[in-house]
Amino acid sequence: MNSRAALAPEVASILAAARERPGGDAPLEVEPRSLPDALERAEADGRVPVIAEVKPTSPTADSTREDDPVELAESMVAGGAAAISVLTEPSHFGGSPETLTRVREAVDVPVLRKDFVLREDQLDVVKADLMLVIARFVENLEELVAAARDRGFQPLVEVHDETELETALESGAEIIGVNNRDLARLEVDLETFESVSRAVPDDITLVAESGISTPANVRRMREAGADALLVGNAIMDHGATETAVEANTRRLTRATPEEET
User: Fold this and answer.
1) How far apart are the first and last CA of the chain?
2) Which of 40, 86, 106, 231 is positioned for an S-S bond with 100, CB 3.0–4.6 A?
3) Of these residues, 75, 96, 180, 210, which one is catalytic?
4) The domain that contains 66 carries what CATH number?
């Protein structure tokens, strides 16, 4: 694990809990829905490729959603989301593997399992199309990426700087997410993606993560090379109705150069 800077207390607490969580009993076999294909379909339809996130709560959210996550996911797809991300971390984000299974059964787009997966056996908790792997937190990234791919998962390897990007590329990652949120201070800076994306090869599917809340943010990340955008709080808008969640999604997936912020 990369420990160049101290983690925010909230993140350290999440990691401590993740280390104690058990994995599955046996390796899973997954037939994934292709994320690159889903992004291409969105582009062909004139939509910005957005991975919309079902997230009941988080250390950076103001409240908790109690409504049905399946209905929220369906609203996101109706709003044009190319894929869905589901938090399965239970103690800090209110997620569960069961929620991911229900969402994946209800929608026809790729579903990302977003969690703090640290060991190979933790891959085997629930079937998903994509698996988030955070480069900073994994001892042997190449082994974990290979293990995820062996099961059928499409690993989305998350990085925050060029050093982590180099490690991700060396691991064989084909889908890379650049997190604009600094896990040491929990501060968000969209320049992070702009800086790191310059060193990403053209054949990598590149995802911008965190801090994307307006059509102007969408355009900025797309101009910097994002193939897709992972959006959570701006779509969930904790407390909004499913209708508002759909509208929030559509506002970002239909962002155009002429649109105002």
Assistant:
1) 38
2) 86
3) 210
4) 3.20.20.70
